[in-house]
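Entry for the shared binder. Reason: the reviewer on the internal report wants the predicted structure included alongside the sequence.
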Amino acid sequence: MSISPLACTLTADQQRCDAATLLPALQSRATTVEWLAEGATLTFDATSENLAAMLRTIDRERHCCAFFTFVLTVPADMRQVVLELRGPEGTRAFLEQLGIQATDAEA
């Protein structure tokens, strides 16, 4: 299986139009963002609105940034929902270019 290139396939106009609904907008809903070696972990309050926003973003991102691997954890008892974004070498730098910022002490 080949790995998709580390690039977004959206045009500049599409990126501007989608900026409010893709990863930067999703980060604005997160309670914490922590860096992984090649990605990030975003934690959210367990609301239906947040879960719906995560699913919409995952669906859109998997088409334009096919190098991402998404791991969504929805635990029992309505505890916080966790979304991991992982990818090949360079993924963290790509996320930083999008404006994703960690909220943890290791940023």
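Summary line for the report: Residues 22 and 76 are 26 Å apart (CA to CA).
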